[in-house]
Amino acid sequence: MKLTVIGGTGLIGSQVVRKLAAAGHEAVPAALSTGVDLLTGAGLDKALEGAEVVVNVANSPTFDEASLDFFRTSMTNLLAAGERAGVRHQVVLSIVGVDQVPELDYYRAKTLQEELLQQGPTPYSIVRATQFFEFVNAIMSWTSNDTTVRLPATRIQPMAAADVVDAVVDVATGAPLNGIRNVAGPDVFTLDDLGRITLAAQGDERTVVIDDKAGMFAVVDSDVLIGGPDVRLAPTHYRDWMRSAH
Questions:
Q1: pLDDT in the model for residue 148
Q2: pLDDT tens digits for 194-230?
Q3: Is 44 helix (H, G, I), strand (E, B) or coil?
Q4: What is the pLDDT of residue 246?
Q5: What is the 3-state secondary structure (H, E, C) of 164-207?
Q6: 128, 65, 90: which is closest to 3 by C-alpha?
Q7: Residues 32, 166, 161, 22: is their CA dihedral positive or negative?
Q8: Which of 39, 49, 60, 207 is 20 to 30 Å apart from 67, CA to CA?
Q9: What are phi and psi of 245, to 5 degrees?
């Protein structure tokens, strides 16, 4: 079948396009670089022409309050264009526990995106994934200096981007869920422990200090970023991924 992948040139999107194509589907990447502007709607109709499924893995350029406008406008434009094109299934990639962290602008914005999709005219699926292994270094960089990395002891259950891709492709090529599928990595860590494991694997001698006010995940309470009882566990373990990545 024909699937249009919105954000199809990014970390997840480019892999989704490759995996769909390898399975024999026609996968069309749509992004600013291919002439598609989600905020103005320019190029959307052409990108969705003949598509049965839209896979939306596009991300906001910022994580602040402006992300609310990005997801509101892009989702509204995409649903309208999908309806015009006769799209039969809209798939969005979101975040495990996203509706439980209203303190974070970005999580509120993603929750709004989910709500617009659920209220929209097209059968839909939401794939909620946990934090990606690939982002651990970036998370540490926000609150670190030459000697110390400060991290909260927030519990997370991260997963490999490749496993996120598999989950998105599985849902996109199936019947619409008209609901949410949660996917997570096989292991739960505290963020500070994950930092120590990462630094050790990289031969980095900086010290990790628990700081319950450090970084965006400091505001997260309890286990909201952990997959719930209905979660589907991905196969890749972080330590194995670290060994293969370096």
A1: 96
A2: 999 999 999 999 999 999 999 888 988 789 999 988 9
A3: helix
A4: 60
A5: HHHHHHHHHCCCCCCCEEEEECCCCEEHHHHHHHHHHHCCCCCE
A6: 90
A7: negative
A8: 49
A9: -80, -20
Closest CA to 44 of 85, 98, 9, 13: 85
- Give the strand pairing for 232-233 and 189-190: unpaired
Q: Which residue has the tokens 């839209």?
A: 54
DSSP state letters, 113-127 = HHHHHHHSSS-EEEE
- Neighbour count for residue 42 (Cβ, 10 Å): 14
Q: Please tell me the distance from the alpha carbon of residue 31 to that of residue 8, in angstroms, as a whole number.
A: 6
Query: Tokens for 60?
Result: 């906001």
Q: What is the pLDDT of residues 87-114, one digit of tens each?
A: 999 999 999 999 999 999 999 999 999 9
79, 90 contact by CB (below 8 A): yes
Residue 63: the pLDDT is 87
Residue type for 172, please?
Answer: A
pLDDT of residue 99: 95
Query: In 10 A of CB 159, how many CB atoms?
Result: 30
Q: 76 pLDDT exceeds 90?
A: yes
One-letter amino acid of 195: G
For 124-159, the pLDDT digits (tens) are 999 999 999 999 999 999 999 999 999 999 999 999
201/3 Cα distance (integer angstroms): 39
Q: Does the predicted TM-score (pTM) go above 0.90? A: yes
Question: How is residue 208 annotated by DSSP?
Answer: E
